[in-house]
Amino acid sequence: MSGAGGHLLPPEWLPRLERLSLSAKRRIAGTQQGKRRSRKLGSSLEFADYRVYSPGDDVRRFDWGVYSRTGKAFVRQFMDEQELTVNLFVDCSASMGAVMSASSGESSAPTSGRDNQSAIGSAKWLLARQLAASIGYMALSSYDRLQVACYSRSIHARLPVMRGKGSAHRLFSFLQGAQTGGEGSLGAALAVPGTLPRRPGMTWVFSDFWLEGGEDELFQALSLLSGTGQEVVLVHVLSREELEPKLAGDLRLVDSETMSGKEVALTGKVIDAYKEELERYRMMLSRVCAERGMSYVLIPADMPLTDAMFGVLAGAGLVTS
Q1: What is the pLDDT of residue 265?
Q2: What's the pTM?
């Protein structure tokens, strides 16, 4: 693995991420001290206030300077810096690596990215992993608890709980080596026993959200996450070809996950209908998340990583400097 971030993140990107933090709405009490400030008083190194000494107080907080000046016994209080549990779910189904390639004659068709990693297909898969690596590194830099999993219809691979920047190489190696393949179903993956987060926290899902079950599957997945006390962020990554298809003519379109095909005459009217349906679907994702107090953002796969982080995610209030 070359560089501090492997091939996913350039080394110069990491110091910029260290100056950012995840903007979690909830303050979550943890078992270890992190850098996430709570409204409660605790045991961090940042002074908050004095209070009168009571028997049983930690004598290490006794302020002898105040006692020598006033003759009164006070103990120091500090801000409680609490950890956040961050869960990253990265969609590794075949559609995340799907590419558009010319077939025989003058037609084109979607093909599986497992065998053909062209610039189109790899852009979506690469950006999803870059975003996951960036969010994960920010969590590690803040001494938050981090868990990462790649899923299709089940969990393909998982990293156990990590803390601290010393674990960053495990995060980068894991995401660098992840492969796409198989049918995707967020609802089915989360329904597998042991998949759901065990602690309240912040869960990020990076996916193209081509859900076979449509709205019903989305409702199921979000309900499962909400039931575990998660603050959910859906990061919708789509290729430029999915957002603005340029295909035309009599084509055979092949589903990259099921490998089933369908003959289609792609006219301007059909393309317009597709764009309208895609817009309706995106608005549904956004509405469903808003109704549940969750976050949704769309990031085109050809968007520079800097714009995605400092533009889209920062603009949505999901990361702060």
Answers
A1: 66
A2: 0.77
